[in-house]
Predict the 3D structure of the following.
Amino acid sequence: MKIKVIIAFFLLIQSAFGQNLDYKKELVDLAKIYRNFHFRNDPPQDVFNQLKSIKSPNLFLTKEFITELIKPNNDIATKKYLSKPDSVTLKSLYVIRGINWNLHEANHKDNFVIIDSLLDENTNYYEMLSCYYGMIYSAVGNKNKPFDMSNVNFTLWDYNLENDIEKGVFFLESMETFGT
């Protein structure tokens, strides 16, 4: 009986480690897709197939967000995406942005070191929220041509923003794009 418990415990640990490694690999995959297609490049169909292959349940909303973000003339400035997501999605996108920045460095670090560092970091919640809205507004400005937001009515109380600081983050991130 003891051996069965030990084996079950060992298998449980192996399973958890394998899932964690898959999660990290999928974060890198998402970051590379983001890096290649968040600016002006239009993704080919195989990129969307690659996105569909990402299976981590913790990355479901992140994958959906990145999928919309990289599309030309996307719908990223709709209530669905302008509404504040859960903290797991915010943290995942914060990590993806960090990997993206790392990939732009001439002597970039190992992506898994970056992931571990950012996941272990006690990141300020508003910094993650700023990252989220910064990614949205950057995509709006870069992917939607012609750039015309005249039909969008930003209604702050519709976006699950809980306080004036969150509303301020939303506003300031939008001004970085729209103010120019």
